[in-house]
Amino acid sequence: MELTWLLLLATLILSTALIFFFHGKIGGSAAGGKKSHCLPPGPAAVPVIGNWLWVTNSGMDIMRAVRRLHARHGPLLGLRMGSRLEVIVADRRLAHAALVESGAAMADRPEFATRGLLGLETATISNTSYGPLWRLFRRNFVAEVAHPARLRQFAPARAAVLAELTEKLRRRHEDGGGGGGTIMETFQHSMFFLLVAMCFGELLDERAVRDIAATQRELLIYSSKKLRVFAFLPAVTTRLFAGRMKAMLAMRLRLKAMFMPLIDARRQRKNNTPPRQEKATTLPHSYVDTLLGLSINDGGKGGERALTDDEMVALCSEFLNGGTDTTSTALQWIMAELVKNPGIQDKLHDEIKAVTAADSGDGGSRRRQVSEDDVHRMPYLKAVVLEGLRRHPPGHFVLPHAPAEDMELGGYTIPKGTLVNFTVADISMDEKTWERPREFVPERFMPGGDGEGVDITGTREIKMMPFGAGRRICPGLGVATLHLEYFVANMVAAFEWLPEGEGEAVDVDGEKLEFTVVMEKPLRARIVPRAPALSLSE
Q1: Which segments of the chain belong to CATH 1.10.630.10?
Q2: Is 474 assigned to a binding site?
Q3: pLDDT in tens, 29-66
């Protein structure tokens, strides 16, 4: 219905222009065969509308269509949404040239005309233009949250989440796999619970966590599905669909009403007014604590100021969004591969047992839970996690980049401000880089494998980029990898993960686009408790 409205609107406004079609490509060879001043090639475009009509408008079909167009036009693909050019890069060397070799030039974010119209000017790490404010936000996160010393301060939260997750999985076994939602939903709740604790410095009760999660997800779903219409002729559509803007504002206000008491509690704790004995559920450090200490330049008015409440809320919301679905999606894919490949699961379990065997006087037959220090001594665990991120990156594209000035890439010109993206999944499945790329083979990251010593940051070269690369690489890389290693190790230590039914196959090829790329058929498994482990305190 929306597409019909938009096409009709465009026809009424520019009916004469729509008579003419571009029969050539967006870009192509210039006279004499030179390409240096040409835009990247792509399918035929319609004036004003562009050529996104070549790309279907739902889920994974978009990605499949982009792959077909890359096969036809090459590793640099030009697409247009209206008059806006988007370039998609599907080659790892071109990605390295753009994101690393020309890192500063490609570190900006594209401008969207709808941001101001929708009241979304509030800056976050992911949307802020490359410059002093972005550096301040990113440096704060990396130094005060993601730094190993800071990460250790969140250990009580991880232990609490692990205990809850283990208990829910144990109950799932006792109930025969029924009740409590899907395994993926259990993972999502656990990761959200952990991030809420890290963000606000408090282990909230389950009802409070679920209320925040529901409100946050409602806003996320609404924004992703209902606000896309504003990308087309925003001056008109913001009036035509004004009710959607009001609904979005109401959701944002509800979220702010939930966040502010938690933020104010940390503010009072920081100011010690009034002094009080801390609850057992209070953490010594939180993301909010770091935001309360930030000062930003007051827009050229002289002096500096603290963050406003709206800025705090936006950064907290980004914190929760950024690590929930990505980590829980990666967990589901990895555990699915371990169900499908029991030999790999057994090998991982053997490594876990060897590292955690307790000196209990019985020859080390008893083991203990996996600590965060333990995971640093488990190379095969790291290989399993890396292979999961290579084979099933949660996002098949990165957040869009934009060059600060006109730049050349692969013999073509990328104009200033162009939306540029990269096919993360296709790069990590390149047959020229990886042997048997569609197979789940953690050994490739062990000595002698084709992924030995791979640089996941892409600084030296890009062979896989699940967190992006270059200056805008995800600042939560270290947090995410620790969480994946810690929870995968403990879930394999506590349970044997088996197919739910006799001869039932796990589908690790079917994909579905939600906020991340998840399993088309959610993981179903028979989770059998192993011999009880000693707690870390025993």
Answers
A1: 132-395+429-463+466-529
A2: yes
A3: 333 334 446 999 998 877 766 666 555 556 677 888 88
